[in-house]
Amino acid sequence: MEVVSVKVSKATREKMRRLSCINWSETIRKAIEKIIEEEELKDRRIDPQEIEEACKVTDSIRRESVGWSSTEEIRRWRNQRK
Asked: Count of domains in the chain?
């Protein structure tokens, strides 16, 4: 592992000392990893061609339901709760 130093105020350091039961190295490490993960997710680029292809596949496997009403089904389940 590599070492990274972080500067904090005296007040913060004193509070950290009072809460010595907390593993500050692990806490900081997890916070850094979380931020890296969030930023990497933001950087992902979505290819419009891939979206178009996914839509075509979805449309090709979609079929119309015959003899079934979503409204009636919801009503049936709601009536069963009473």
From this structure: 1
Structural domain includes residue 50: yes
CA distance 55 to 77: 31
Q: Whole-model pTM?
A: 0.52
64 part of a folded domain:
no
- What are the tokens at 70? 């979503």
Instruction: Work out the pLDDT band at 75, boundaries 50, 70, 90.
Output: very high
Residue 72 is assigned to a structural domain of this protein: no
Task: For residues 16 and 24, give the distance between their C-alpha atoms in angstroms, rounded to a whole number.
Answer: 8
**Farthest-apart Cα atoms in the chain, separation:** 71
Alpha-carbon torsion (31, 32, 34, 35), positive or negative: positive
Report if residue 68 sits inside a domain: no
Cα 27 to Cα 25: distance, rounded to the nearest angstrom:
5
